[in-house]
Write a structure and sequence with these properties.
The complex is a heterodimer of chains A (about 280) and B (about 270).
Chain A lengths: L1 H27 L7 H19 L3 H23 L4 H21 L1 H4 L14 H19 L2 H11 L1 H6 L4 H27 L9 H14 L5 H16 L7 H15 L4 H17 L1
Helix pairs in contact in A: 1-6, 1-9, 1-10, 1-11, 2-3, 2-4, 2-9, 3-9, 7-9, 10-11, 10-12
Chain B lengths: L1 H13 L8 E10 L2 E11 L4 E5 L6 H8 L7 E6 L2 E2 L5 H6 L2 E3 L12 H6 L10 H6 L2 H20 L15 H14 L4 E5 L7 H16 L3 E5 L3 H7 L2 E6 L2 E6 L1 H6 L1 H8 L3
Parallel strand pairs in B: 3-8, 3-9, 6-7, 7-8
Antiparallel strand pairs in B: 1-2, 1-4, 4-5, 9-10
Classes of the chains: A mainly alpha (about 280), B alpha/beta (about 270).
Chain lengths: ~280, ~270
Amino acid sequence: MGLGVYQSLFDVFLLNCGFAFSQFIVLRAGVFSIASAAYAGIGGYATAILVTRYGVSAPVAVAAATALGLIVAGVLSIPLARLRGVYQAIATLAFVEIVVSLGFYAEDLTGGAMGINGIPKLVGTGTLCVALGAVLYLMVAIDRSGLGRAFDTVRQDETVAGSLGISVQRSHAIAFIISGGIGGLFGGLQSLYVYSIEPQQFGFALLVSMLASIVLGGRGTVIGPIIGTAILTALPELARPLAENRPLIHGLLLIVIINYLPHGVADSLALLRRRRRAANAV
Amino acid sequence: MEWPILWRSCAVDAAPPMPSETLTLRHVTKRFGGVTAVSDVSFDIPPGRITGLIGPNGAGKSTLVNMIAGVLTLSEGDIRLGSRLLSQAPAFEVARSGIARTFQNIRLLAEASVLDNVLVGFHRLERASLASHLLGLPASWRETRDLRARARDLLNRFGMQRYAEYPAGGLSYGHQRRVEMMRALATQPRLLMLDEPVAGMNDVEAAELGDIFASLARDGMAVLLIEHNVPFVMRLCAEINVLDTGRLIASGPPGTVMRDPAVIAAYLGTG
Protein backbone atom coordinates (compact mmCIF):
# COMPACT_ATOMS: atom_id res chain seq x y z
CA MET A 1 0.00 0.00 0.00
CA GLY A 2 2.58 2.56 1.21
CA LEU A 3 4.43 3.07 -2.04
CA GLY A 4 1.29 3.77 -4.06
CA VAL A 5 0.29 6.54 -1.69
CA TYR A 6 3.68 8.17 -1.99
CA GLN A 7 3.61 7.84 -5.75
CA SER A 8 0.28 9.60 -6.04
CA LEU A 9 1.50 12.25 -3.67
CA PHE A 10 4.56 12.66 -5.88
CA ASP A 11 2.30 13.00 -8.93
CA VAL A 12 0.31 15.71 -7.19
CA PHE A 13 3.59 17.40 -6.34
CA LEU A 14 4.64 17.29 -10.03
CA LEU A 15 1.34 18.77 -11.16
CA ASN A 16 1.49 21.49 -8.53
CA CYS A 17 5.08 22.29 -9.54
CA GLY A 18 3.87 22.87 -13.08
CA PHE A 19 1.16 25.23 -11.87
CA ALA A 20 3.65 26.94 -9.60
CA PHE A 21 5.98 27.65 -12.55
CA SER A 22 3.09 29.19 -14.47
CA GLN A 23 2.72 31.58 -11.54
CA PHE A 24 6.48 31.94 -11.03
CA ILE A 25 7.35 33.21 -14.48
CA VAL A 26 4.97 36.17 -14.37
CA LEU A 27 6.05 37.20 -10.89
CA ARG A 28 9.67 36.91 -11.96
CA ALA A 29 9.02 39.49 -14.66
CA GLY A 30 7.18 41.74 -12.25
CA VAL A 31 3.69 41.01 -13.54
CA PHE A 32 1.28 40.56 -10.67
CA SER A 33 -0.92 38.19 -12.67
CA ILE A 34 -2.91 35.51 -10.91
CA ALA A 35 -4.43 34.19 -14.11
CA SER A 36 -2.61 30.85 -13.93
CA ALA A 37 -5.65 29.11 -12.40
CA ALA A 38 -7.67 30.26 -15.40
CA TYR A 39 -5.11 28.89 -17.88
CA ALA A 40 -5.19 25.60 -15.99
CA GLY A 41 -8.97 25.61 -16.29
CA ILE A 42 -8.88 26.40 -19.99
CA GLY A 43 -6.27 23.72 -20.65
CA GLY A 44 -8.07 21.24 -18.42
CA TYR A 45 -11.43 21.68 -20.08
CA ALA A 46 -10.00 21.78 -23.57
CA THR A 47 -8.21 18.49 -23.01
CA ALA A 48 -11.18 16.81 -21.32
CA ILE A 49 -13.58 17.89 -24.05
CA LEU A 50 -11.25 16.91 -26.88
CA VAL A 51 -10.55 13.49 -25.39
CA THR A 52 -14.00 12.48 -24.13
CA ARG A 53 -16.12 14.00 -26.85
CA TYR A 54 -13.98 13.95 -29.95
CA GLY A 55 -11.72 11.03 -29.21
CA VAL A 56 -8.61 13.08 -29.82
CA SER A 57 -5.41 11.38 -28.71
CA ALA A 58 -3.83 12.50 -25.46
CA PRO A 59 -0.66 14.16 -26.88
CA VAL A 60 -2.66 16.15 -29.43
CA ALA A 61 -5.19 17.22 -26.79
CA VAL A 62 -2.49 18.35 -24.38
CA ALA A 63 -0.66 20.17 -27.19
CA ALA A 64 -3.92 21.91 -28.06
CA ALA A 65 -4.42 22.84 -24.40
CA THR A 66 -0.93 24.35 -24.31
CA ALA A 67 -1.51 26.27 -27.52
CA LEU A 68 -4.84 27.55 -26.23
CA GLY A 69 -3.16 28.73 -23.03
CA LEU A 70 -0.53 30.58 -25.09
CA ILE A 71 -3.12 32.21 -27.32
CA VAL A 72 -5.49 33.26 -24.55
CA ALA A 73 -2.61 34.71 -22.55
CA GLY A 74 -1.34 36.52 -25.64
CA VAL A 75 -4.73 38.12 -26.20
CA LEU A 76 -5.14 38.93 -22.51
CA SER A 77 -1.71 40.57 -22.34
CA ILE A 78 -2.89 43.37 -24.64
CA PRO A 79 -5.51 44.98 -22.35
CA LEU A 80 -3.37 44.23 -19.29
CA ALA A 81 -0.26 45.98 -20.65
CA ARG A 82 -1.18 49.29 -19.08
CA LEU A 83 -2.00 47.90 -15.65
CA ARG A 84 0.47 47.40 -12.82
CA GLY A 85 0.61 45.73 -9.46
CA VAL A 86 -2.66 45.27 -7.64
CA TYR A 87 -4.67 46.36 -10.69
CA GLN A 88 -3.15 43.51 -12.69
CA ALA A 89 -4.05 41.18 -9.83
CA ILE A 90 -7.67 42.31 -9.79
CA ALA A 91 -8.04 42.19 -13.56
CA THR A 92 -6.60 38.68 -13.74
CA LEU A 93 -8.71 37.58 -10.77
CA ALA A 94 -11.74 38.72 -12.76
CA PHE A 95 -10.49 36.60 -15.63
CA VAL A 96 -10.26 33.57 -13.33
CA GLU A 97 -13.83 34.19 -12.22
CA ILE A 98 -14.96 34.44 -15.84
CA VAL A 99 -13.39 31.08 -16.66
CA VAL A 100 -14.95 29.46 -13.58
CA SER A 101 -18.39 30.84 -14.43
CA LEU A 102 -18.03 29.66 -18.02
CA GLY A 103 -17.39 26.24 -16.53
CA PHE A 104 -20.64 26.51 -14.61
CA TYR A 105 -22.88 28.09 -17.23
CA ALA A 106 -21.69 26.74 -20.57
CA GLU A 107 -23.25 23.44 -19.60
CA ASP A 108 -23.42 22.00 -23.12
CA LEU A 109 -19.71 22.32 -23.44
CA THR A 110 -18.41 21.90 -19.91
CA GLY A 111 -21.05 19.84 -18.13
CA GLY A 112 -21.85 22.71 -15.74
CA ALA A 113 -21.45 22.13 -12.02
CA MET A 114 -21.21 18.38 -12.57
CA GLY A 115 -18.10 18.90 -14.61
CA ILE A 116 -16.73 16.31 -16.99
CA ASN A 117 -16.47 12.76 -15.71
CA GLY A 118 -15.04 9.55 -16.98
CA ILE A 119 -11.93 11.11 -18.47
CA PRO A 120 -9.52 8.29 -19.23
CA LYS A 121 -6.40 8.33 -17.08
CA LEU A 122 -3.74 8.59 -19.76
CA VAL A 123 -1.07 10.41 -17.81
CA GLY A 124 1.25 8.88 -15.24
CA THR A 125 4.31 9.79 -13.26
CA GLY A 126 6.60 9.40 -16.28
CA THR A 127 4.68 11.87 -18.45
CA LEU A 128 4.46 14.36 -15.62
CA CYS A 129 8.20 14.08 -15.03
CA VAL A 130 8.93 14.71 -18.71
CA ALA A 131 6.60 17.70 -18.82
CA LEU A 132 8.03 19.21 -15.66
CA GLY A 133 11.53 18.51 -16.93
CA ALA A 134 10.75 20.45 -20.10
CA VAL A 135 9.37 23.36 -18.07
CA LEU A 136 12.42 23.30 -15.80
CA TYR A 137 14.72 23.38 -18.81
CA LEU A 138 12.82 26.40 -20.15
CA MET A 139 13.08 28.13 -16.78
CA VAL A 140 16.82 27.49 -16.46
CA ALA A 141 17.40 28.61 -20.07
CA ILE A 142 15.53 31.86 -19.37
CA ASP A 143 17.33 32.26 -16.05
CA ARG A 144 20.73 32.18 -17.74
CA SER A 145 19.82 34.34 -20.71
CA GLY A 146 19.42 37.99 -21.45
CA LEU A 147 15.68 37.45 -21.19
CA GLY A 148 16.04 36.41 -17.54
CA ARG A 149 18.18 39.48 -16.88
CA ALA A 150 15.55 41.65 -18.54
CA PHE A 151 12.82 40.03 -16.39
CA ASP A 152 14.82 40.62 -13.21
CA THR A 153 15.43 44.24 -14.10
CA VAL A 154 11.81 44.92 -15.01
CA ARG A 155 10.66 43.32 -11.76
CA GLN A 156 12.97 45.39 -9.61
CA ASP A 157 12.79 48.77 -11.34
CA GLU A 158 10.87 49.55 -14.53
CA THR A 159 12.49 52.96 -14.90
CA VAL A 160 15.96 51.44 -14.85
CA ALA A 161 14.82 48.77 -17.32
CA GLY A 162 13.62 51.49 -19.69
CA SER A 163 16.85 53.44 -19.30
CA LEU A 164 18.79 50.36 -20.46
CA GLY A 165 16.66 49.78 -23.55
CA ILE A 166 14.51 47.01 -22.09
CA SER A 167 10.89 47.18 -23.20
CA VAL A 168 8.76 46.62 -20.11
CA GLN A 169 5.69 45.86 -22.20
CA ARG A 170 7.47 43.25 -24.27
CA SER A 171 8.97 41.57 -21.21
CA HIS A 172 5.59 41.48 -19.49
CA ALA A 173 3.87 40.07 -22.56
CA ILE A 174 6.49 37.33 -23.02
CA ALA A 175 6.23 36.29 -19.36
CA PHE A 176 2.46 36.36 -19.58
CA ILE A 177 2.36 34.16 -22.67
CA ILE A 178 4.80 31.62 -21.22
CA SER A 179 2.67 31.52 -18.08
CA GLY A 180 -0.38 30.79 -20.23
CA GLY A 181 1.39 27.98 -22.05
CA ILE A 182 2.58 26.28 -18.87
CA GLY A 183 -0.82 26.71 -17.20
CA GLY A 184 -2.58 25.21 -20.22
CA LEU A 185 -0.13 22.33 -20.41
CA PHE A 186 -0.47 21.30 -16.78
CA GLY A 187 -4.22 21.89 -16.78
CA GLY A 188 -4.40 19.46 -19.69
CA LEU A 189 -2.16 16.92 -17.98
CA GLN A 190 -4.18 17.16 -14.80
CA SER A 191 -7.38 16.40 -16.70
CA LEU A 192 -5.88 13.18 -17.97
CA TYR A 193 -4.77 12.27 -14.48
CA VAL A 194 -7.74 12.92 -12.18
CA TYR A 195 -10.65 11.19 -14.06
CA SER A 196 -13.00 14.14 -13.58
CA ILE A 197 -12.87 17.90 -13.48
CA GLU A 198 -15.32 20.51 -12.24
CA PRO A 199 -15.32 24.32 -12.39
CA GLN A 200 -14.53 25.19 -8.79
CA GLN A 201 -11.26 23.31 -8.76
CA PHE A 202 -9.86 26.09 -10.99
CA GLY A 203 -11.01 28.86 -8.70
CA PHE A 204 -9.71 30.76 -5.75
CA ALA A 205 -8.28 27.78 -3.85
CA LEU A 206 -5.98 26.78 -6.73
CA LEU A 207 -4.95 30.37 -7.23
CA VAL A 208 -4.05 30.76 -3.57
CA SER A 209 -2.04 27.56 -3.48
CA MET A 210 -0.09 28.60 -6.61
CA LEU A 211 0.70 31.97 -5.11
CA ALA A 212 1.52 30.42 -1.76
CA SER A 213 4.08 28.07 -3.25
CA ILE A 214 5.94 31.00 -4.83
CA VAL A 215 5.79 33.17 -1.73
CA LEU A 216 7.01 30.23 0.34
CA GLY A 217 9.71 29.10 -2.03
CA GLY A 218 10.83 32.38 -3.57
CA ARG A 219 10.44 34.04 -6.94
CA GLY A 220 14.02 34.87 -7.78
CA THR A 221 15.45 31.38 -8.30
CA VAL A 222 14.19 28.43 -10.31
CA ILE A 223 14.41 26.12 -7.32
CA GLY A 224 12.04 28.34 -5.30
CA PRO A 225 8.72 27.11 -6.69
CA ILE A 226 9.85 23.49 -6.27
CA ILE A 227 10.69 24.00 -2.60
CA GLY A 228 7.47 25.90 -2.02
CA THR A 229 5.37 23.23 -3.71
CA ALA A 230 7.16 20.46 -1.85
CA ILE A 231 6.41 22.09 1.49
CA LEU A 232 2.79 22.77 0.59
CA THR A 233 2.23 19.26 -0.77
CA ALA A 234 4.01 17.40 2.00
CA LEU A 235 2.97 19.31 5.05
CA PRO A 236 -0.75 18.47 5.09
CA GLU A 237 0.14 14.83 4.56
CA LEU A 238 2.60 14.85 7.42
CA ALA A 239 0.01 16.44 9.63
CA ARG A 240 -2.74 14.05 8.57
CA PRO A 241 -5.41 15.22 11.01
CA LEU A 242 -5.03 18.72 9.58
CA ALA A 243 -5.24 17.67 5.93
CA GLU A 244 -8.85 18.82 5.81
CA ASN A 245 -7.74 22.26 6.83
CA ARG A 246 -5.30 22.80 4.01
CA PRO A 247 -6.34 26.41 3.39
CA LEU A 248 -5.80 27.15 7.08
CA ILE A 249 -2.31 25.68 6.94
CA HIS A 250 -1.53 27.63 3.78
CA GLY A 251 -2.64 30.79 5.47
CA LEU A 252 -0.66 30.24 8.64
CA LEU A 253 2.47 29.20 6.75
CA LEU A 254 2.24 32.27 4.55
CA ILE A 255 1.98 34.59 7.53
CA VAL A 256 4.98 32.97 9.20
CA ILE A 257 7.11 32.96 6.04
CA ILE A 258 6.25 36.50 4.99
CA ASN A 259 7.29 37.67 8.43
CA TYR A 260 10.48 35.74 8.84
CA LEU A 261 11.64 34.97 5.26
CA PRO A 262 10.13 37.72 3.14
CA HIS A 263 12.02 36.56 0.03
CA GLY A 264 10.86 32.94 0.36
CA VAL A 265 12.94 29.97 1.45
CA ALA A 266 15.14 29.59 -1.65
CA ASP A 267 15.76 33.29 -2.27
CA SER A 268 16.58 33.93 1.37
CA LEU A 269 19.11 31.11 1.33
CA ALA A 270 20.61 32.38 -1.93
CA LEU A 271 20.89 35.89 -0.52
CA LEU A 272 22.51 34.58 2.64
CA ARG A 273 25.02 32.56 0.65
CA ARG A 274 25.87 35.52 -1.58
CA ARG A 275 26.35 37.79 1.45
CA ARG A 276 28.61 35.25 3.08
CA ARG A 277 30.66 34.71 -0.06
CA ALA A 278 30.94 38.46 -0.55
CA ALA A 279 31.98 38.94 3.06
CA ASN A 280 34.75 36.40 2.55
CA ALA A 281 35.85 38.03 -0.68
CA VAL A 282 36.06 41.60 0.58
CA MET B 1 23.25 33.50 -37.79
CA GLU B 2 25.53 32.97 -34.81
CA TRP B 3 28.93 33.76 -36.25
CA PRO B 4 28.28 37.26 -37.54
CA ILE B 5 26.67 38.01 -34.18
CA LEU B 6 29.71 36.94 -32.22
CA TRP B 7 31.94 38.78 -34.58
CA ARG B 8 29.90 41.90 -34.10
CA SER B 9 29.98 41.76 -30.33
CA CYS B 10 33.76 41.42 -30.46
CA ALA B 11 34.05 44.27 -32.92
CA VAL B 12 32.16 46.62 -30.63
CA ASP B 13 34.75 45.97 -27.97
CA ALA B 14 37.68 46.98 -30.12
CA ALA B 15 36.27 49.99 -31.93
CA PRO B 16 34.98 53.25 -30.42
CA PRO B 17 31.41 52.72 -29.28
CA MET B 18 29.43 54.25 -32.12
CA PRO B 19 29.53 57.04 -34.64
CA SER B 20 29.33 60.18 -32.56
CA GLU B 21 26.32 62.40 -32.93
CA THR B 22 25.12 65.65 -31.44
CA LEU B 23 22.01 65.82 -29.33
CA THR B 24 20.06 68.95 -30.14
CA LEU B 25 17.35 70.48 -27.98
CA ARG B 26 15.11 73.01 -29.70
CA HIS B 27 12.46 75.04 -27.86
CA VAL B 28 11.96 72.23 -25.37
CA THR B 29 9.06 72.99 -23.06
CA LYS B 30 7.33 71.01 -20.34
CA ARG B 31 4.16 72.03 -18.56
CA PHE B 32 2.61 70.18 -15.63
CA GLY B 33 -0.93 71.50 -15.61
CA GLY B 34 -0.50 75.25 -15.07
CA VAL B 35 3.15 75.04 -14.03
CA THR B 36 5.81 75.45 -16.68
CA ALA B 37 8.76 73.40 -15.40
CA VAL B 38 10.94 73.90 -18.48
CA SER B 39 10.38 76.69 -20.94
CA ASP B 40 11.77 77.09 -24.45
CA VAL B 41 15.18 75.55 -23.80
CA SER B 42 17.54 75.13 -26.76
CA PHE B 43 21.13 73.94 -26.68
CA ASP B 44 23.39 71.25 -28.14
CA ILE B 45 25.26 68.41 -26.51
CA PRO B 46 28.04 67.61 -28.99
CA PRO B 47 30.27 64.54 -28.87
CA GLY B 48 33.82 64.72 -27.63
CA ARG B 49 33.28 67.05 -24.70
CA ILE B 50 31.46 67.48 -21.43
CA THR B 51 28.52 69.82 -21.48
CA GLY B 52 27.45 71.16 -18.11
CA LEU B 53 23.92 71.84 -16.90
CA ILE B 54 23.61 73.71 -13.65
CA GLY B 55 20.96 75.64 -11.80
CA PRO B 56 19.43 75.98 -8.36
CA ASN B 57 17.08 73.36 -6.93
CA GLY B 58 13.80 73.28 -8.80
CA ALA B 59 15.30 74.93 -11.87
CA GLY B 60 14.09 72.08 -14.11
CA LYS B 61 17.34 70.16 -14.62
CA SER B 62 15.96 66.75 -13.79
CA THR B 63 12.78 67.45 -15.76
CA LEU B 64 14.96 68.20 -18.76
CA VAL B 65 16.98 65.01 -18.29
CA ASN B 66 13.78 63.00 -17.97
CA MET B 67 12.48 64.51 -21.20
CA ILE B 68 15.66 63.62 -23.05
CA ALA B 69 15.50 60.10 -21.59
CA GLY B 70 11.92 59.64 -22.79
CA VAL B 71 10.53 59.29 -19.28
CA LEU B 72 8.54 62.51 -19.66
CA THR B 73 6.86 63.66 -22.86
CA LEU B 74 7.50 67.12 -24.24
CA SER B 75 4.78 69.74 -24.25
CA GLU B 76 6.54 71.58 -27.07
CA GLY B 77 9.78 71.57 -29.00
CA ASP B 78 11.89 68.69 -30.20
CA ILE B 79 14.90 66.61 -29.32
CA ARG B 80 17.10 64.97 -31.93
CA LEU B 81 20.10 62.70 -31.82
CA GLY B 82 21.83 63.38 -35.12
CA SER B 83 18.90 63.40 -37.53
CA ARG B 84 16.76 61.06 -35.50
CA LEU B 85 13.76 62.65 -33.77
CA LEU B 86 13.40 61.40 -30.19
CA SER B 87 10.76 63.77 -28.81
CA GLN B 88 8.00 61.20 -28.69
CA ALA B 89 10.06 58.02 -28.30
CA PRO B 90 9.46 55.91 -25.17
CA ALA B 91 12.36 55.50 -22.74
CA PHE B 92 13.52 52.10 -24.01
CA GLU B 93 13.77 53.36 -27.59
CA VAL B 94 15.72 56.42 -26.49
CA ALA B 95 18.09 54.09 -24.63
CA ARG B 96 18.44 51.86 -27.69
CA SER B 97 19.35 54.84 -29.84
CA GLY B 98 22.40 55.26 -27.58
CA ILE B 99 21.46 57.53 -24.69
CA ALA B 100 22.39 56.32 -21.22
CA ARG B 101 21.91 57.95 -17.86
CA THR B 102 22.53 57.74 -14.18
CA PHE B 103 19.90 58.75 -11.68
CA GLN B 104 19.95 61.55 -9.18
CA ASN B 105 18.82 59.10 -6.50
CA ILE B 106 20.88 56.01 -7.21
CA ARG B 107 18.76 53.23 -8.68
CA LEU B 108 20.44 49.85 -8.55
CA LEU B 109 18.95 46.39 -8.48
CA ALA B 110 19.61 46.07 -4.78
CA GLU B 111 19.03 42.31 -4.60
CA ALA B 112 21.40 41.53 -7.46
CA SER B 113 25.19 41.32 -7.33
CA VAL B 114 27.38 44.13 -8.60
CA LEU B 115 28.36 42.02 -11.60
CA ASP B 116 24.73 41.29 -12.48
CA ASN B 117 23.88 44.97 -12.15
CA VAL B 118 26.52 45.80 -14.74
CA LEU B 119 25.59 42.81 -16.89
CA VAL B 120 22.04 44.09 -17.52
CA GLY B 121 23.59 47.24 -18.92
CA PHE B 122 24.68 45.25 -21.97
CA HIS B 123 21.06 44.57 -22.93
CA ARG B 124 21.26 47.02 -25.83
CA LEU B 125 24.08 45.01 -27.37
CA GLU B 126 22.40 41.62 -27.05
CA ARG B 127 21.75 39.98 -30.40
CA ALA B 128 20.58 36.45 -29.52
CA SER B 129 16.99 35.82 -30.60
CA LEU B 130 14.06 35.23 -28.28
CA ALA B 131 13.91 31.61 -29.42
CA SER B 132 17.54 31.01 -28.51
CA HIS B 133 16.92 32.51 -25.05
CA LEU B 134 13.89 30.28 -24.51
CA LEU B 135 15.50 27.13 -25.84
CA GLY B 136 18.86 27.72 -24.17
CA LEU B 137 20.68 27.60 -27.51
CA PRO B 138 24.43 28.26 -27.74
CA ALA B 139 23.83 31.75 -29.16
CA SER B 140 22.19 32.68 -25.87
CA TRP B 141 24.68 31.21 -23.41
CA ARG B 142 27.71 32.25 -25.41
CA GLU B 143 26.41 35.77 -25.41
CA THR B 144 25.93 35.64 -21.64
CA ARG B 145 29.45 34.30 -21.20
CA ASP B 146 30.98 37.00 -23.43
CA LEU B 147 29.05 39.80 -21.80
CA ARG B 148 29.97 38.53 -18.34
CA ALA B 149 33.64 38.78 -19.33
CA ARG B 150 33.10 42.31 -20.59
CA ALA B 151 31.29 43.24 -17.39
CA ARG B 152 34.34 42.03 -15.44
CA ASP B 153 36.59 44.20 -17.64
CA LEU B 154 34.45 47.19 -16.80
CA LEU B 155 34.67 46.34 -13.09
CA ASN B 156 38.44 46.23 -13.38
CA ARG B 157 38.50 49.60 -15.06
CA PHE B 158 36.60 51.12 -12.14
CA GLY B 159 38.62 49.23 -9.55
CA MET B 160 35.53 47.36 -8.40
CA GLN B 161 36.47 43.76 -9.24
CA ARG B 162 36.59 42.60 -5.65
CA TYR B 163 32.96 43.62 -5.15
CA ALA B 164 31.75 41.62 -8.17
CA GLU B 165 29.66 39.14 -6.18
CA TYR B 166 28.60 41.61 -3.51
CA PRO B 167 24.90 42.56 -3.35
CA ALA B 168 24.76 46.04 -4.86
CA GLY B 169 22.38 47.34 -2.19
CA GLY B 170 24.98 46.72 0.51
CA LEU B 171 27.72 48.90 -1.01
CA SER B 172 28.76 52.32 0.21
CA TYR B 173 27.26 55.35 -1.47
CA GLY B 174 30.30 56.14 -3.59
CA HIS B 175 30.59 52.56 -4.78
CA GLN B 176 26.91 52.44 -5.66
CA ARG B 177 27.43 55.52 -7.83
CA ARG B 178 30.24 53.70 -9.59
CA VAL B 179 28.07 50.66 -10.23
CA GLU B 180 25.41 52.87 -11.75
CA MET B 181 28.00 54.49 -13.98
CA MET B 182 29.41 51.14 -15.09
CA ARG B 183 25.90 50.01 -15.95
CA ALA B 184 25.32 53.12 -18.04
CA LEU B 185 28.69 52.67 -19.79
CA ALA B 186 27.90 49.02 -20.51
CA THR B 187 25.23 50.24 -22.94
CA GLN B 188 28.06 51.76 -25.05
CA PRO B 189 26.24 55.08 -25.26
CA ARG B 190 26.69 57.93 -27.69
CA LEU B 191 25.42 60.28 -25.02
CA LEU B 192 25.90 59.77 -21.30
CA MET B 193 23.80 61.87 -18.92
CA LEU B 194 25.15 62.08 -15.40
CA ASP B 195 22.64 63.43 -12.88
CA GLU B 196 24.70 64.71 -9.92
CA PRO B 197 27.28 61.92 -10.19
CA VAL B 198 29.58 63.16 -7.42
CA ALA B 199 26.94 64.30 -4.93
CA GLY B 200 28.02 63.26 -1.47
CA MET B 201 31.55 62.30 -2.51
CA ASN B 202 34.74 63.83 -1.17
CA ASP B 203 37.03 65.83 -3.44
CA VAL B 204 39.44 62.96 -4.07
CA GLU B 205 36.70 60.55 -5.13
CA ALA B 206 35.10 63.29 -7.25
CA ALA B 207 38.38 64.06 -8.98
CA GLU B 208 38.90 60.38 -9.78
CA LEU B 209 35.50 60.16 -11.42
CA GLY B 210 36.06 63.48 -13.14
CA ASP B 211 39.13 62.01 -14.84
CA ILE B 212 37.04 59.09 -16.07
CA PHE B 213 34.39 61.44 -17.49
CA ALA B 214 37.05 63.47 -19.24
CA SER B 215 38.55 60.36 -20.81
CA LEU B 216 35.12 59.23 -22.03
CA ALA B 217 34.61 62.58 -23.70
CA ARG B 218 38.09 62.40 -25.23
CA ASP B 219 37.13 59.05 -26.74
CA GLY B 220 34.26 60.73 -28.56
CA MET B 221 31.29 60.35 -26.24
CA ALA B 222 28.89 63.21 -25.65
CA VAL B 223 28.58 63.78 -21.91
CA LEU B 224 25.94 65.85 -20.14
CA LEU B 225 26.90 66.66 -16.56
CA ILE B 226 24.27 67.90 -14.14
CA GLU B 227 25.97 68.95 -10.94
CA HIS B 228 25.78 71.28 -7.97
CA ASN B 229 29.51 71.21 -7.32
CA VAL B 230 30.49 74.37 -9.22
CA PRO B 231 34.30 73.97 -9.10
CA PHE B 232 33.87 70.43 -10.41
CA VAL B 233 31.73 71.61 -13.33
CA MET B 234 34.08 74.52 -14.05
CA ARG B 235 37.05 72.19 -14.23
CA LEU B 236 35.48 69.61 -16.55
CA CYS B 237 33.04 71.34 -18.86
CA ALA B 238 33.78 73.02 -22.15
CA GLU B 239 30.39 74.67 -22.09
CA ILE B 240 27.94 75.32 -19.28
CA ASN B 241 24.20 75.90 -19.57
CA VAL B 242 22.43 77.52 -16.67
CA LEU B 243 18.77 76.91 -15.94
CA ASP B 244 16.70 79.01 -13.59
CA THR B 245 12.96 78.53 -13.01
CA GLY B 246 12.79 76.46 -16.19
CA ARG B 247 14.47 79.01 -18.47
CA LEU B 248 17.95 78.92 -19.94
CA ILE B 249 19.56 82.08 -18.59
CA ALA B 250 23.11 81.59 -19.82
CA SER B 251 25.23 79.36 -22.07
CA GLY B 252 28.90 79.43 -22.82
CA PRO B 253 32.40 78.64 -21.58
CA PRO B 254 32.70 78.33 -17.78
CA GLY B 255 34.61 81.57 -17.29
CA THR B 256 32.08 83.70 -19.15
CA VAL B 257 29.03 82.02 -17.66
CA MET B 258 30.23 82.35 -14.11
CA ARG B 259 30.77 86.10 -14.50
CA ASP B 260 27.29 86.59 -15.97
CA PRO B 261 25.31 88.80 -13.58
CA ALA B 262 22.09 86.84 -14.20
CA VAL B 263 23.85 83.63 -13.23
CA ILE B 264 25.36 85.15 -10.14
CA ALA B 265 21.97 86.49 -9.13
CA ALA B 266 20.05 83.30 -9.83
CA TYR B 267 22.46 80.58 -8.95
CA LEU B 268 24.81 81.98 -6.40
CA GLY B 269 22.23 84.29 -4.84
CA THR B 270 22.12 88.05 -4.70
CA GLY B 271 23.27 88.06 -1.10
